[in-house]
Amino acid sequence: MSVRPRRRIPVQGHDGPDERWMASYLDMVTVLMCMFIVMFAMSTVDQDKFEALRSSLATGFGAEVSEATDVSEGVIVPPELLDEAGEGFTAVQPVPSPVELGAEAEYQTLLDLRTRLQEALDARGLGDAATFTIDDRGLTIGLISAETFFATNSADLSDKARAVLDATGAVLATVPHQISVEGHADHRVPMAPFADNWELSSARSSGVLRYLVEDQAVGGERITSVGFGASRPLAEGWSESAMAANRRVDIVVLSGADDAVRALLPQVAAAHSPQ
Q1: What digits encode the pLDDT tens for the residues 105-161?
Q2: Using CA atoms, how far apart are residues 166 and 117, in angstroms rounded to an integer?
Q3: First CA to last CA across the chain, in angstroms?
């Protein structure tokens, strides 16, 4: 008797979406839930519980538990910024601007000129015959008390004035700067042949200019003279000391630097002056 073979029924395939991603998703949700539980538990920090949690997490991640705790505060200081003792910060100097560098260089140029002029006066025993000031105009050589350099009511140079101009003129003849010779007077009214202090101060500054040009070879193209009369006093009042300070002739070696550089010269000079 023949047996009729049984007909195999084909297995039906799964036509729905692949849901294997659900396992990874549920793992992630579980991890997030644990994280929020930990955050909630730490909302009120208990130091003992925190240390226990820290140690547990460290052990779980395979790290060795350490009893030492880093309690350092503040910023990390690079070694190159520490002082010689290894403590604190060393002073970090700001980078000067081009204008500041220019002012420093111009000050040094004028300072070197002042040193040369002072040495020339010292060599002749006239070290206290002039004063020196560095400001935004340049270097001012002050011949204080015009009565010392000129006879009363006169524009004729005294012997001391000629000696001072011999010493300073020899140096001024070697520099390229423009020079302004400026005459000043006190408040007293002069006598003939001068109608007023304008004429007296102008005659004295012109006398200094002529001597520097004709006897000391200072270039005439770079020197001028002006008389200010009694309009720019150094000291107020009618005392003998005040009037002596106001009777003067200034020889100003004008700075050729830019306006911005010259504006910083008083600041640089103050920084270099002895405290």
Answers
A1: 999 999 999 999 999 999 999 988 999 999 999 999 998 766 678 877 888 898 999
A2: 11
A3: 133
Quote the crossing angle between the two packed helices 98-123 and 159-172, to the nearest 10°.
140
Beta bridge partners of 182: 226, 250
Contact 143, 248 (CB under 8 A): yes
Round to whole Å and give the CA distance between 166 and 121.
9
CA dist 164 and 172 (Å) reads 12
- Whether the CB-CB separation of 184 and 248 falls below 8 Å is answered with yes
Q: What is the pLDDT of residues 190-235, one digit of tens each?
A: 998 999 999 999 999 999 999 999 999 999 999 999 999 999 998 8
Helix residue ranges, H only, 42-145 = 47-60, 98-123
Residue 146 CB-density burial (10 A; 0-12 exposed, 13-18 middle, 19+ buried): buried
Under a CB-based contact definition with an 8 Å cutoff, are residues 185 and 201 in contact?
yes
Distances (CA, A) of 190 to 14, 114, 205: 126, 33, 16
Positive or negative, the CA dihedral 181, 126, 115, 169 is positive
Residue type, 113: L
- Compute the chain's Rg from CA coordinates: 44
Residue 36 one-letter amino acid = F
CA distance 101 to 273: 18
Q: Give dist(CA 120, CA 170) in Å, integer.
A: 9
Residue 183 near residue 128, CB atoms below 8 Å: no
**pLDDT band for position 94 (cuts 50, 70, 90):** confident
CA distance 192 to 174: 38
